[in-house]
Amino acid sequence: MLDLLEIAQPQSVRIEPFPVPETSVRRRVVGLDVWLETRPRASSPLGRTLVAALASTALRLTHLEDLHGRLVWPSAETVTTAATQNRARLMLRDEDAHLTDQAIAEALAAVGGIATWSLVRKLEEFDAVEAFAPLGCSSRTTTLSEDRT
Predict the structure, then answer these.
(1) C-alpha–C-alpha distance, residues 40 and 133, integer Å
(2) pTM of the predicted model, to two decimals?
(3) Per the domain annotation, does 113 fall within a domain?
(4) pLDDT tens-digit series, residues 108-133
(5) Residue 54 backbone phi and psi in degrees, to 5
(6) Is 123 a domain residue?
């Protein structure tokens, strides 16, 4: 069993949860997006290594993308720099289950044995409707339109 450390938040920090639809009947956590920093290992590509590490957890690796939104796994595992950053999408093995904090801690411990993770985002659904973007959609917005000259 893993012990989680509680870290006090400064008074000035305010964490806003995802807005819950007022008509929502069922809310559940179905997965995680985990941002990773890795050093490439030619003998053990990141995707296959993560799949093996997560084998005994409630989560499975479904996709791995680089910071530009390009799919790195499962289609290909090419590393072009000495240090890389990726986003791993981990989803529940049992599609009808709810992801608990204990299961999250176990998955992060497994991932942490392979790569340094810097950010974790819970993926939720409301009444079976996903409340998260598919991979490949950047969270950044641009101010320039395509028709601008």
Answers:
(1) 27
(2) 0.71
(3) yes
(4) 999 999 889 999 999 999 888 888 88
(5) -85, 0
(6) yes
